[in-house]
Specification:
With 156 residues, the chain is mainly alpha-helical. Helix content is 73%, strand content 0%. The chain has 6 helices and no strands. Helix 3 runs antiparallel to helix 4 and helix 4 runs parallel beside helix 5. The longest helix has 25 residues.
């Protein structure tokens, strides 16, 4: 890969703002999870689900930065804004329900194993996949705030 492309990628303020928002959300999520559960779990740093939504922070900061730089009437903002709405809606809709179903299915598997005394396939479904509306809202706020900070510090 040409070094020029790598240099362009790592100097792209839109990409950097979105990635910084994701990283900030993931670190905060890990800290909150450790405080609530009184146990540090490094997997939360890269895991889905939890407070705040890293997905929402990422796409919202990208859309907000584009809106601030290119304008709310730009095609770039239209694309990023619609993608952000879809991602945020999905995080608190389908993915949240998937997590709830995974919890129930995991419990059903444990119960079935106890009742039948049979060895069942060891399949544990991932339960942290979605977000509550509050977690999504926190991610959205974080993304917008990060975009405003980056814009005022570096892009004005």
């Amino acid at each position: 890969m040409n070094m020029k492309y790598i240099s362009e990628l790592f100097s792209n303020v839109f990409v950097l703002t979105a990635l910084a928002s994701w990283a900030e959300a993931q670190v905060l999520k890990t800290i909150i999870h450790a405080i609530v559960n009184k146990k540090f779990d490094i997997t939360r740093l890269f895991g889905d689900g939890g407070m705040p939504s890293g997905h929402s922070a990422t796409v919202t900061s990208l859309a907000a930065t584009i809106g601030l730089v290119k304008g709310l009437d730009s095609v770039e903002f239209a694309i990023a804004g619609i993608v952000a709405v879809v991602v945020c809606h999905d995080a608190s809709g389908v993915r949240l329900e998937t997590g709830k179903q995974s919890t129930i299915l995991n419990e059903m598997q444990k119960t079935l194993k106890l009742l039948t005394s049979q060895e069942l396939p060891e399949v544990k479904l991932k339960e942290f996949v979605g977000h509550t509306r509050a977690q999504v809202a926190a991610g959205i706020i974080m993304g917008i705030v990060n975009a405003i900070i980056v814009y005022n510090l570096f892009l004005r």
